[in-house]
Design brief:
The complex is a heterodimer of chains A (267) and B (316). Chain A has one domain. In chain A, 72% of the residues lie in helices and 0% in strands. The longest helix of chain A is centred in the last third of the chain and has 33 residues. Chain A is globular, with a radius of gyration of 19 Å. Chain B is α/β, with parallel strands linked by helices. Chain B is 33% helix and 28% strand. Chain B has a 6-stranded mixed beta sheet with strand order 6-7-8-3-9-10, with helices on both faces. The longest helix of chain B has 16 residues. Classes of the chains: A mainly alpha (267), B alpha/beta (316). Chains A and B meet through α1, α4 and α12 of A and α2 and α3 of B.
């Protein structure tokens, strides 16, 4: 093969806008988009029941926040896998790549729109804890809470973009989806803070952006000032941006490889 | 200016444990701006591979392909902006979205602003006869309607060059006729169209030139009006219900070379020159035989002559 230039040399925001707008329209007509939300109240019930009946009501915030983060990650895995494979199976992948808008930014835009699910997910978890267990989670630092929520959603979309790149070459997404859910819940400190882990495992977990998200979200519910907020936001942003850069570059690289191999279409 | 140009364009695939499969073999093709050009060939001949390379979704193994002077491998963004692509079949649309939402999305993919999108989408839906179904989900459409929406999708950026890969597969005759009108309009507006098809009459009707491709190699590129000379340079007339005694007289006309029954009751007279044709016509009319037609070798005959009768077999 001859050596050629990278196809998307600049960050194309029109691809992002197109993807975001498209996904918000598509989500209105696709009820299966909301399947990942179903788990949120059930996980809230499960975790709240454990905390209540073990007498650890001090950990109730964990039980409310964890289902929201789990929904986000589940949705990210689901959408990132389906986005490539569904387009390929329906003969759209080549058409999307034949258009001038940046495909990697289109994917990121669509995944960002998918992350809008974090709001109803949090609402469902919050309402379940409130209505069933009469626990109405306080938010003492709403700025930190909202900031952490927005950055977490963006970082999740970035991580999902990185995952999506693998699906350009891999025809099956299901195995990756099934493999990557619980390890990330664990390493992300979603239910058990990573500070409780052995030192070596905590060090690894700190590379997972969700560990910083979970700490910030939980800290925003306590009356005490949020410790290490700057550090938390910085790490969340850094890890999110790293995932995004890796994702965009990987998609470009994988697309190039698929064009060389001739594996873009599924016939 | 040349709209599409390929030089020694080659694409091969590595197959484990087997020799490389060559899908395109040193193709040289030059299509000027404003031309409607058809690619004809059996399944697996390399037509779609050529379309994929031109649309930048497949890289050539060697050689070059250019669209409006831009190399598909090194300047893909410039190529994409000037190219509309319609791959065959009814796949490629978002079935749960409406036709208007589909076109709006694709217009956005080509960088059109909101006002421009609204205007373009409305006009295109009207042009392909789907304006009244604009707000219905595509999944409720027939195959032919989806095909028409595909065409509209390919035109959404008003591209200078349009690639149509078997665009009329599955279309009903009325839609197919509308499609041909649309291609004629595109030609009169100065668009270049490269179309792959199995429909010989369609190719003959629409194309300025046709190319025959087989086993990845270009067999011939020619104007469909003169391409029949490849098979026969003789004048031909087809006469129905030619009585045996008249048949004997016809064969004695100076310049008539053969009289052959090509199907039951239909005879083909081949002559060396126009004088002979006139002599045959006079004889037939005097005998009261009026079911006469001048014929030329059809594109299908040329196709069979060049490609052979491969039947259901695809290229190796």
């Amino acid at each position: 093969m001859m050596r050629r230039n990278f196809e998307y040399s600049t960050v194309d925001l029109s691809g992002f806008g197109t993807g975001f707008r498209f996904q918000t329209v598509a989500m209105r007509s696709q009820s299966d988009t909301y399947f990942s939300l179903i788990t949120s109240p059930f996980f809230a019930l499960l975790y709240m029941a454990i905390m209540e009946y073990s007498g650890r009501t001090d950990l109730n915030t964990h039980a409310v926040i964890a289902p929201m983060l789990m929904t986000l990650w589940t949705a990210a895995l689901s959408f990132s896998g389906e986005m490539i494979s569904e387009n390929r199976e329906n003969g759209r992948l080549e058409l999307l790549l034949a258009a001038p808008a940046s495909f990697p930014m289109l994917v990121f835009g669509r995944l960002c729109a998918c992350m809008l699910l974090s709001l109803p997910s949090f609402g469902m978890s919050y309402m379940t804890a409130g209505l069933v267990f009469d626990y109405w989670m306080p938010i003492h630092h709403p700025g930190v809470f909202v900031g952490a929520l927005v950055l977490t959603a963006l970082a999740t979309a970035a991580a999902a973009t990185a995952l999506a790149s693998a699906f350009v070459l891999t025809l099956g997404a299901r195995i990756v989806q099934n493999t990557l859910s619980f390890p990330v819940y664990l390493l992300g400190g979603i239910i058990v803070p990573v500070s409780m882990f052995p030192g070596w495992l905590e060090a690894i977990s700190r590379l997972v952006y969700l560990s910083w998200s979970a700490d910030l979200l939980r800290a925003s519910t306590t009356p005490e000032p949020v410790a290490n907020a700057v550090m938390g936001f910085s790490m969340l942003s850094l890890l999110g941006l790293s995932a995004l850069a890796f994702g965009l570059l990987s998609i470009v690289w994988f697309l190039r490889r698929a064009k060389e191999l001739g594996t873009l279409s599924k016939e | 200016m040349t709209a599409i140009e390929t030089q020694r364009l080659t694409r091969s695939y590595t197959v484990k444990g087997k020799p490389d499969h060559v899908a395109l073999d040193k193709i040289d093709l030059s299509i000027p701006r404003g031309e409607v050009h058809s690619l004809l060939g059996p399944n697996g001949a390399g037509k779609t591979t050529l379309c994929r390379i031109l649309s930048t979704v497949l890289l050539p193994t060697s050689g070059t392909a250019k669209v409006l002077g831009h190399d598909v491998a090194t300047e893909p963004q410039q190529v994409k902006r000037s190219l509309g692509v319609v791959f065959g079949g009814d796949r490629g649309l978002y079935n749960r979205l409406t036709s208007k939402q589909n076109l709006d999305f694709w217009a956005s993919m080509y960088g059109l602003g909101r006002a421009e999108r609204r205007d373009r989408v409305g006009r295109l839906l009207d042009r392909v006869g789907l304006a009244e179904r604009a707000d219905e989900p595509v999944q409720s459409f027939s195959r032919g309607m989806k095909q028409r929406l595909h065409l509209a999708r390919g035109l959404v950026s008003s591209p200078a060059v349009l690639l149509l890969d078997e665009p009329t597969v599955g279309m009903d005759p009325v839609s197919a006729r509308d499609f041909r009108d649309l291609v004629r309009e595109l030609r009169s507006d100065g668009h270049t169209v490269l179309m792959t098809t199995h429909d010989m009459p369609e190719a003959a009707d629409l194309s300025d030139r046709v190319s025959f491709i087989d086993n990845g190699a270009l067999a011939l590129t020619e104007n469909p009006d003169v391409i029949g000379e490849i098979v026969s340079s003789k004048e031909r007339i087809d006469v129905r219900a030619l009585p045996p005694e008249l048949r004997q007289e016809v064969i004695r006309v100076p310049g008539v070379s053969t009289v052959t029954e090509i199907e039951h009751g239909l005879f083909r007279v081949e002559a060396e020159h126009k004088e002979a044709v006139r002599g045959v016509l006079m004889l037939a009319i005097e005998a009261g035989v009026t079911d006469i037609a001048r014929s030329r070798p059809s594109l299908e005959e040329v196709y069979l002559h060049l490609i052979g009768r491969r039947g259901m077999n695809v290229a190796p």
